[in-house]
Amino acid sequence: MSGPGSGRTLGERSAAVTALDLVRPAIEFQGRWWTWGELGATAEAVAAHVPEPGTRVAVLLRNSPVSVAFVLGVLRAGGCVVTVNPHRGAERVRAEIAALRPALVAGGPADLVGLPGAVLAADELGAPVEARGTAAAAEPRPGVAVQMLTSGTTGPPKRVDLSYRMLERVFAGAKHYEGNRDSAVRLRSGIAVVNAPLVHLGGLFRVLQCVVDGRSFALLERFTVEAWADAVRRHRPATVSLVPAALRMVLDADLDPSDLRSVRSVVCGTAPLSADDADAFTGKYGVPVLVSYAATEFGGGVAGWNLADHQRYWSTKRGSVGRAHAGCALRVVSSETGAVLPPDQPGLLEVRAAQLGTGDEWIRTTDLARIDADGFVWILGRADQAIIRGGFKILPDDVRAVLERHPAVRAAAVVGLPDRRLGAVPVAAVEIRAPVTADDLAAHVSTQLAPYERPVEIRIVDALPRTPSAKVDLGAVRALLGGGR
User: Fold this and answer.
1) pLDDT tens profile 108-134
2) How far is it, in rounded angstroms, from Cα 406 to Cα 441?
3) Most buried residue, 278, 371, 406, 413, by most Cβ within 10 Å?
4) Model confidence over 369-404: pLDDT tens digits?
5) Are 412 and 441 in contact (CB under 8 A)?
6) According to the 3-state scheme, what is the secondary structure of 73-112?
7) SS3 459
8) CA triplet 399, 378, 393: central angle to 5 degrees?
9) Cβ atoms < 10 Å from Cβ of 73
10) How many Å apart are CA 47 and CA 69, to the nearest integer?
11) Distant-in-sequence, close-in-space partners of 217: CB < 8 Å, separation ≥ 6
């Protein structure tokens, strides 16, 4: 991480950290500790196969130590990590890889089966990194550390470039919120708990932050209350991160408040969290919830609560996502004219993020918001029709298209309905042309959609409600499907 007295790039710093103490534990995963030396050796083996800086390497990211090593290896070589979600299914992964056209594809052997082209395979740290094929002559992205699919805050999901310089600014800026702002290359005490998916910005950011800080961490393969609570009890972190769906699961669990006695704050982002849920969590466990606002396009957070603001303002500003981070600016503009609106007037949120290094450029999001005179931001909803289910973004048209590929379906409509635990869930109404059951359609979508994309209800209707122009009336569909819930 570049910074005062550092002089190292992100890749150089991570390499220096892993070389400090080869036998000291770095990552706990599935009951076993892996050392900094094992992590560094696998990362170095990966880096040896990246032919030149800027080489695009598609990494099939699972929450595993070897995935961490793949990322660090590509960064160590100055390459570009192109994140790919293997949970989307083999067919969709193959199509995505074909569209991305990376020079190499890296992942576990099982995830690479049937993928053409050059691959790097390893199933755990310390195992040989198997190389197959010759790196393709793909267009490089010099200076870009990560190409990541956005969750869509500034529009439909798209690949965005997160530069090395941007990430270095983000990690340097994160020090502003820590009690000890020492940026020396050293191994630190304490163990973090990482439970977010590495294929999403929150998980990848947290892992890279731990590595560049020299902090050991417990990596959960996936979030469950039992695994998370066990890790918190054993490692006693001062701060934990939970997406709203996970926070609600912990809130609903019968945990002893003493399980969280080490935790001073919970950072919560990626999707809306109600103030009532935040207060209920604090009331049950005695831990303040610090809501944040972030987007992949910004390389991380641009606004949020800190403990000082929470203690002073929460009672009067509850429901807000906090104030702009140091070096960032936020404003609300009219969707019609683009004019900047006064305090407390709702409109489209625009952001100027310090980590982007773009000077005075404002980036318009698709979030509706208001900002009060003290700078606190409230997110009022989304200007588009995206469904945010537990932090995962679902595009209704993607789900609709899958439903309409069934030969018995004439037309389909997909909308989001509120859900207390997940924030929102997709539901579908289907107009059919031949006999078919909802179970048949559920089986059909299960082969083509990720689990979080699948509708929680598929209702067969005689005819979809439509507007005078013959378009499906989504408001009427939402009322129809919500009436029975």
Assistant:
1) 999 999 898 899 999 999 899 999 998
2) 8
3) 413
4) 999 999 999 988 777 778 889 989 888 888 988 998
5) no
6) HHHHCCCEEEEECHHHCHHHHHHHHHHHCCCEEEECHHHH
7) strand
8) 15
9) 31
10) 10
11) 26, 27, 28, 191, 192, 193, 194, 206, 207, 210
